[in-house]
Amino acid sequence: MATPAPAPVPEPPLPPPGTPLGEIRYTVTATVPVDREWLKRHRLITGVEEDPVLEAYKLLRTQILQRTRGEQKNLLMVTGPQPGEGKTLTAVNLALSLSREVDKTVLLVDADLRNPTVHTCFGLRPAFGLVDYLQGTKAIPELLLHPEGFPRFVLLPGGRPVAEAAELVSSPMMAALVQELKNFYPDRYVIFDLPPLLTYADALAFAPLADGIILVVEQGRTTREDLGRALQLLKDFPILGTVLNKVPETPSRSYEEAAGRREENGRWWHRLRRRLSAA
């Protein structure tokens, strides 16, 4: 039987009041170099270029902040109905965008233990991850990574894929870790990337632990039936919203046309939510 790992001590400690968070120095968490060209090829927002995708994540960040600020709703879960809809990239870019807030730090946790891929977005190859903590062989401070160039962002990789992912995600050690990470720093957002909701039980098992849930769907791929089933499964949990992913760029579309399309999509979304509420 594995011996439980020591209680987690997330890094970095916050500086004294009045100190800009951009001046954080990572003394325990390993700072790892990243290739900026790799990040661009894998569609990570770096914040140095004008990019419609960057603006979209700024808008998403603003909406998340407005819906969570002031209530310590700082532990978020990202999932999607089916595989391949972009939920991991959305979780990574949302985390990076939130970390650019001057008064926030962000910890991104790869809890897709069946197929942990968050580290690949940064071109990293960590030897260990969350699965090792949950199996009692590593402590959290040994596992945290700080990608160089993102001063308020820390990553907890998933580690090697395991078959017993649902059991680990729903274990008492995971529940205790979630509470520790949520309450250790009230000014930190903790974002968990979970497996697809309709494919595995992991996300539904984790949902009671989350302060807010973000559902990622793909335009032209996610069916209304799948979205409806996912919302039905999550109807008793706090859904912050849905991200429509992989929308084709249409630079020639006028502002009025884009606004009309958003209004049409919004009406469809609210009709679906009303039908689910009445069910």
Name of the CATH homologous superfamily: P-loop containing nucleotide triphosphate hydrolases
Strand order of the largest sheet: 5-3-6-2-7-8
Second-tier CATH architecture: 3-Layer(aba) Sandwich
- Principal-axes geometry comes out as globular
Total helical elements: 11
Assign the structural class, choosing from mainly alpha, mainly beta, alpha/beta, alpha+beta, or little secondary structure.
alpha/beta
Q: Mean of the pLDDT scores?
A: 82
CATH top level class name: Alpha Beta
The total domain count is 1
- The Rg value, from CA coordinates, equals 19 Å
Provide the CATH topology: Rossmann fold
**Strand share of the residues?**
5-15%
Count of DSSP E strands? Answer: 8
Q: End-to-end span in angstroms? A: 45 Å
Helix percent band: 25-40%
Biggest beta sheet summary: 6 strands, parallel
What pattern of helices and strands is seen along the backbone?
EHHEHEHHHEEHHEHEHEH
